[in-house]
Amino acid sequence: MLKCIAIDDEPLALRQLSSYIAKLPYLELVATCSNAIDAQQLLGRQAVDLIFVDINMPDLNGVDFVRSLIDRPMIVFTTAYSEYAIEGFKLDAVDYLLKPFDFADFSRAAAKAHSLYELLQKRQAPSSEAPVPEAEPKDKEYISVKADYKVSLVKISDIIYLESEGEYVRMHLTNGTCITTLFRLKNMETALPAEHFMRIHRSYIVNLDYIRSYVRGRVYISETEYLPIGEIYKETFQHYIDSHFRNLSE
To answer: Which of the residue ranges 15-24, 130-139, 142-151 has the most confident prediction, judged by mean pLDDT?
Structure first.
């Protein structure tokens, strides 16, 4: 059971959140707050696992509120302003709900939080058995990852690049979809074939087969989309280019 609180300065939105939370058996609503300052005081007395918080609030907005939390629980941001999405994900939010959202949208976000909570519990639980890796190559062609309350088999060659988001890794696939899983990029790096994947930044691993061009500290995976190359990875990347491709520009 996930203990959660809902924070929103709009009474109607707060009632809707409370109603949605009550419909899911794995969520327990501890309290509702109409502002972030009251929520800070509440969290000083009550530990919770999950917070649903609006971003655009007076006095203290949701983003600054989350930044202020030292022992941060899982976060789902809710807002009517899509421009806040990037800031939300920079804070490793589980999800971002754009108002107005329905119960289906809410339940998907809650399911992500529940899945993450169960994975964390399994990691922390003592076991006499050998740990099972969460990202595991299958027949050198597929990798299995836990995401969205299920285990997905992903064809390795379909992965364009991987992006670190704190405790999560977002896998960007050739069909345009993304899979987000609770796994560190460093561990994912060891699970993927080194002849096809390279760490080019502390936050990115790229499938070398999808690099279209590179220039001034970035690699392009399409005509318009690119990934940065970190300073400490530039020499390794350049060595790969020099050893695999003939330079015809001279």
So the answer is: 15-24
204 token code pair: 């990115």
* Predicted pLDDT at 138: 45
Contact 111, 148 (CB under 8 A): yes
Tell me the C-alpha distance between 145 and 137, whole Å: 10
Q: Does domain 136-244 have CATH number 3.40.50.300?
A: no
Cβ atoms < 10 Å from Cβ of 241:
13
102 token code pair: 């329905």
CA distance 228 to 208: 14
Percent of the chain with pLDDT over 70: 85
Most confident of 91-95, 107-111, 137-141: 107-111
Q: Domain 2-124: which topology?
A: Rossmann fold (3.40.50)
| C-alpha–C-alpha distance, residues 207 and 194, integer Å | 10
Q: Is the pTM of this model over 0.70?
A: no
Are 45 and 34 in contact by the 8 Å Cβ rule? The answer is no
Q: Which residues contact 182 (CB under 8 A, 6 or more apart)?
A: 115, 116, 119, 120, 134, 146, 167, 168
User: In the predicted model, what is the mean pLDDT of residues 181-200?
Assistant: 86
pLDDT band of 88, cuts 50, 70, 90: low
Answer for the pair 45, 64: CB distance below 8 angstroms, yes or no: no
Give the residue ranges of DSSP H helices in the chain: 11-23, 36-45, 62-67, 85-90, 103-124, 185-191, 234-244
Q: What sign does the CA torsion over 39, 92, 116, 19 have? A: positive
**Domain boundaries along the sequence of the chain:** 2-124, 136-244
